[in-house]
Design the sequence.
């Protein structure tokens, strides 16, 4: 990463191919002086970060694919190369699949830091929004990386286990790994600052193609939920839901469709010929035109398709490609990509409220019943109003896995529930603390800093 930082700071080359849909000016190559010369340059640099988020090497499917390969729903018998190594939970310092994802996450962080350090040259009316955007980008990128490269929150009592390098400036210095607690503390600080700076409306007719305070609050709910901090997770999820800005989709095909979803709290649109988010999702999962790279075990397929009343059966097929238990969720030529959606926020509020008990339990029952009513086309599977907290938690965890299939969620649930209860829920039989559940750092980190602490390798089987 030190090599990446030096090279980018030397030239600051950023191609902003998403500028059309954000209605912002395109940008080619910027020197340091040019970055400071005009609002449009800073705005264009910030706009470029949206393309990093939706890039196939980062949240456009790579983070999710790696997470799913490490988890327990996939049949990995036909995987090769990096994918096979990741699936077998035996990661080494070599592997371009992982390296590209790591670099793209830190490129988003670096670019956010460049903007933050040059806000003094921006007109006052733009400073607050740009600062909020970049603090959100920096916080969420650190969060996504620490969940994959470090043992989870709760692994130690004080969370002093090694985390990831915490990059808070553009200084070209070698850094070791901050603790997981230090990373989470900074992520929360960045997201809270973003929440205070970003507007409530995206100013694009309710499409939410740019960051608002609600995406900062949605990520705060996700972060606190990962920590099993249910009071804070509930609070932020509750605020997003009660904003009234977002509604659950009625149609299961809408979440990743072109312009149809009402759930996305931040989404990246397809801009034909310029920016196409989610390419890794489509490349890995698509099953209508080719055999998918990622597909399910017989065990999970039977589990997910076991109830004939479940409308989500439309997401699965074992006939499109012979010999493959396929997911049809990403059978698109092009898609829009939700960074976070309302279904996830309802699931967070439902489980967090049940964990808290008391007056929040009734809200949790209503939340999970909204998900169940949509999934089964009626109230036949709904929980009763007198359901226990444990019944709500169990139902919510089940629905989370079914609703967010293919979205990289299952791995973090294995870790979070392990940290919460000490229970190993991995279908492949690994303890939630095993070394193979986290990724090895790229070799370039140790090349740049001989003292850099790598992760132990393997250790799950």
Sequence:
């Amino acid at each position: 990463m030190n090599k990446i930082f030096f090279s980018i700071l030397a030239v600051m080359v950023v191609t902003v191919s998403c500028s059309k849909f954000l209605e912002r000016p395109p940008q080619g190559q910027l020197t340091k002086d040019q970055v400071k010369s005009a609002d449009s340059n800073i705005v264009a640099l910030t706009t470029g970060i949206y393309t990093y988020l939706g890039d196939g090497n980062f949240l456009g499917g790579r983070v999710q694919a790696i997470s799913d390969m490490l988890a327990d729903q996939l049949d990995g018998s036909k995987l090769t190369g990096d994918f096979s190594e990741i699936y077998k939970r035996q990661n080494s310092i070599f592997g371009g699949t992982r390296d590209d994802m790591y670099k793209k996450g830190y490129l988003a962080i670096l670019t956010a830091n460049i903007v933050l350090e040059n806000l003094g040259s921006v007109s006052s009316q733009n400073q607050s929004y740009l600062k909020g955007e970049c603090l959100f980008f920096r916080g969420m990128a650190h969060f996504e990386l620490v969940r994959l490269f470090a043992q989870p929150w709760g692994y130690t009592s004080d969370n002093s286990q090694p985390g990831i390098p915490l990059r808070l400036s553009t200084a070209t210095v070698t850094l070791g790994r901050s603790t997981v607690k230090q990373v989470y503390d900074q992520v929360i600080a960045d997201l809270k600052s973003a929440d205070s700076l970003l507007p409530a409306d995206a100013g694009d007719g309710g499409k939410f193609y740019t960051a608002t305070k609600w995406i900062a609050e949605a990520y705060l709910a996700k972060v606190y939920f990962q920590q099993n901090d249910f009071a804070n997770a509930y609070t932020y999820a509750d605020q997003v839901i009660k904003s009234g800005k977002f509604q659950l989709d009625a149609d299961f095909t809408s979440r990743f469709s072109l312009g149809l979803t009402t759930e996305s709290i931040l989404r990246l649109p397809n801009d034909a010929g310029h920016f196409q988010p989610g390419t890794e999702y489509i490349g890995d999962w698509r099953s209508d035109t080719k055999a998918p790279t990622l597909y399910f075990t017989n065990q999970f397929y039977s589990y997910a398709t076991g109830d004939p009343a479940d409308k989500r059966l439309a997401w699965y097929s074992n006939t499109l490609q012979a010999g493959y238990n396929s997911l049809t969720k990403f059978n698109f030529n092009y898609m829009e990509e939700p960074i976070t959606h309302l279904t996830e926020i309802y699931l967070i509020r439902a489980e967090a409220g049940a964990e808290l008990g008391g007056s929040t339990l009734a809200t949790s029952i209503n939340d999970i019943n909204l998900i169940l009513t949509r999934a089964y086309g009626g109230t036949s599977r709904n929980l009763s109003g007198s359901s226990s907290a444990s019944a709500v938690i169990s139902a919510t965890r089940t629905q989370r896995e079914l609703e967010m299939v293919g979205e990289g969620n299952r791995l973090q649930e294995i870790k979070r529930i392990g940290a919460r209860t000490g229970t190993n829920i991995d279908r492949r039989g690994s303890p939630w603390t095993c070394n193979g559940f986290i990724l090895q750092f790229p070799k370039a980190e140790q090349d740049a800093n001989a003292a850099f602490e790598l992760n132990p390798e393997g250790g799950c089987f």
Observations:
- The two ends are 30 Å apart (CA to CA).
- DSSP finds 18 helices and four strands in the chain.
